[in-house]
Amino acid sequence: QSALTQPASVSGSPGQSITISCTGTSSDIGGYNYVSWYQQHPGKVPRLMIYEVTNRPSGVSNRFSGSKSGNTASLTISGLQAEDEADYYCSSYTRSTTRVFGGGTKLTVL
Amino acid sequence: EEQLLESGGGLVQPGGSLRLSCAASGFSFKSYVMGWVRQAPGKGLEYVSHIDTGGSTYYAESVKGRLTISRDNSMNTLSLQMNSLRAEDTAIYYCAKLQYFAFHVWGQGTMVTVSS
Questions:
Q1: Test the B interface: residue of A99, A101, A105 with most B CBs within 10 Å
Q2: pLDDT one-digit tens code per residue, B49-79
Q3: Where are the beta strands (DSSP E) in chain A?
Q4: For position A2, what pLDDT does the model report?
Q5: pLDDT tens-digit series, residues B16-27
Q6: Measured between CB atoms, which of B61, B102, B109 is closest to A45?
Q7: How far lies A13's CA from each of A19, A104, B21, in Å?
Q8: Which residue in the set A45, A55, A97 is minimally distant from B58, CB to CB?
């Protein structure tokens, strides 16, 4: 199972919106609505931000939203804040019932 | 509060073995799928394995045949038996609770270093 493809880095200014893409195949992202997104600050434990493509766990800001089209999922962060600077990972359920992660995207808040 | 606490990490020689444990509290352990995710130093997250509530097990191709996941519902404990370890297995190993096909709750992680 190959890793999902994410851009290595994205950046934005405070208050702006950014979108991180995550591209897979019909055997993972395209075949199921089971995409999740994780935020990880340096030296910290990953935190679930989005599950089942669009759902936010309790406690996650509504500035975070998810979507999917075909084999590509996206995470959008609106009203960018300094605390959003972190690494972001996508993940998907796969045809073999395992999971696969993306390579990660480093978000820089300018 | 839902908590996961890993233990058992350490330094091991190539070809050696190690057993990781994860103690769960604050939720009905037997009712949830549980899994392991690892992160090599300076690298991204990598799915390792998961076990469902019926005891069926699933593995990444990179660890199949070498790592074995198990659970003890009476002790609320998840385990990962790691054999034939390689340098590329060096990573922080996170225990996680799965819900709605995502990793909802994470432990603090335990470091495994494979080196001579």
A1: A99
A2: 999 999 999 999 999 999 999 999 999 999 9
A3: 9-12, 18-23, 35-40, 47-50, 64-69, 72-77, 86-93, 99-101, 105-109
A4: 84
A5: 999 999 999 999
A6: B109
A7: 13, 20, 42
A8: A97
